[in-house]
Design goal:
Radius of gyration: 14 Å
Number of helices: 0
Strand content: over 45%
Oligomer: single chain
Shape: elongated
Structural class: mainly beta
Number of strands: 11
Helix content: under 10%
Distance between the termini: 40 Å
Length: 122
Amino acid sequence: QVQLVESGGGLVQAGGSVRLSCAASGTIFSINVMGWYRQAPGKQRELVATTTSGGNTNYHDFVKGRFTISRDNAKNTVHLQMNSLKPEDTAVYYCNAEVQVYTFPLRWSNYWGQGTQVTVSS
């Protein structure tokens, strides 16, 4: 019913920048929180940044000042601008969205994208 499709990952040198994008599509009535998580090999998935439909943002401490999350509510898209990348930022990055699905009655569900690899070389 709802799909999240990420794009923009790749290989970048330390100190470089990457911009990730995620587009949500399907039977969407509204979206509350959209965000990005990441999972490095052998580690648990962790929150990177989130944003609400009202524009409030939340960042994990390890990306504050380097990453910026933005959102286009009209297009159901969320972006993550990643600057000053470090090798420890290497991970699969996942888009996440809390979606009110267009069913009767309306219901909230949580969705994940398929993930996009970001590799930062030293």
